[in-house]
Amino acid sequence: LSTWASQHSARTMQCAIRLVPQQIGGKRGTCKRSKQVRAARVSAAAITKDTEGERRRKMVNLGTALLTGGGFGFLLDRAKTDVPLAITEQMAMHHFTMMRMFLGASATSLLVMAVLHATGIKERVPRGGLALGLGKCGGYGANMLGGTLLGSGMALTGSCPGTVWAQVGAGLPYVVHIIAGGMLATLVVGYLEKGLLEKLPNYQKRGEPKALDQMLKIPYPAVAVGMATVMMAVIKVVEVYFPWKVSSALWLAPGAGLASFPPTLHSAAWDPLVAGVLLGLLQVPAILTNGAGLGASAGWVYAAGMAAKTCDQKCEEHAPYFTRTRSIWQAVAALGMVCGGFISNYYASASVVGPVLSAKAAVGVGSAASAFCGGFLLLLGSRIANGCTSGHGLTGMATLSIGSFITVACMFAGGILTKLFL
What mean pLDDT do residues 349-374 have? Predict the structure, then answer.
């Protein structure tokens, strides 16, 4: 619509150029007419130039989103951390391949963000906490509740708001049920927000930005490098007791090849650490084009908003949430994740004779009800916390935002408790 409006304005200006000579007569009006014609032409040329430049920038941004999402989905499937069993076993604290990739991507994201900040290319902007509106939890109630619900959904589905798109491309079971539950939750959040704000004026009110380095009074780059070092040390210790190759063998079929370093396309799975480091490097194109780093849940809002506007002519009145909180960049990136997961699974399938996944992993979470309910919790939690596993876990923690650390901690707590009691 913006592009059409700009084009329409340009056409209107060109029409004005033709009409001005007809509306101004006489010798006295000749000079005035010439000036008006020149001004109109200059204005029309400027509008056309701005329109073309804006169109090119949008195409570049969306193209980058597609490629970045493609890399995201490809790496998730290459490490086989999109296999539901890998995520549910992580929440059960039995195997740690997901954590290996997550910490590798988080550490790299910290270093990327620190370099961009130190060089002046992109300033680090920490996030403030999100209140639930009940006057409790020190202004972090939404982070706590949202993170806990998100973790419970991960334990039930073996998925994440972004991972599910790689699972679609890889052809894993029950992804339709996860998406259906997630879309329903996004619509519920969107339509309930207006009423919640009337009863709880501080619902999702963002507090003052607070970052770990500000609390410690230590320069941001120093804290970022220190945290990245700690994360790598944790990966090293965990590998001693829980080797990733032993864990990956549980969800890969016998004979499926594992690639450590350098990774190759003709292997069933890569080292999750290698995939995580490469995933963290995708922050560079994401930050420079999207401006906010990697994330996934806002793309769901874009899709749900499109569906709501199709079915509800008064959507903007009933659910203004869908006009404020959405990201076409993340929506396009989700399409890229599907493509990336498909390409990765294609090469993995070509590297083995027979199935890639073991019989236990191939059934997914094994229940349509679990997938649907878990998908609902995934997006309900993500939208309450205003971010998901990648939005808070990779991008938010890379800015050292206290709210993101709280969300991620509650996410793992929710997932672990769900696996413990179910």
Answer: 90
C-alpha span between 16 and 343 (Å, rounded): 52
Instruction: Give residue for tokens 């079929």.
Output: 253
Strand extents, DSSP E, 103-252? 128-130, 206-209
Measure Cα distances from 404 to 48, 207, 209, 339, 379 in Å. 42, 13, 11, 29, 16
pLDDT digits (tens, 9 = 90+) for 246-274: 999 999 988 777 777 778 888 889 999 99
For 85-98, write each residue's pLDDT tens digit. Answer: 999 999 999 999 99
Residue 86: exposure state from Cβ atoms within 10 A (0-12, 13-18, ≥19):
buried
Collapsing DSSP to helix, strand or coil, 130 comes out as: strand
Which residue bears the tokens 């680090």?
124
pLDDT of residue 141 exceeding 60, the answer is yes
Q: What's the farthest any 2 CA atoms get from each other in the chain? A: 94
Output the CA torsion sign for 321, 323, 327, 328: positive
Cα Rg of the chain (Å, integer): 25
Q: What is the DSSP letter of 138?
A: G
348 Cβ contact list (under 8 Å, min separation 6): 77, 78, 256, 267, 268, 269, 356
**Phi, then psi, of 303 in degrees rounded to 5:** -65, -45
Q: Is the pLDDT assigned to residue 345 strictly greater than 70?
A: yes
Whole-number mean pLDDT of the chain? 89
**Is 296:334 a contact under the CB 8 Å cutoff?**
yes
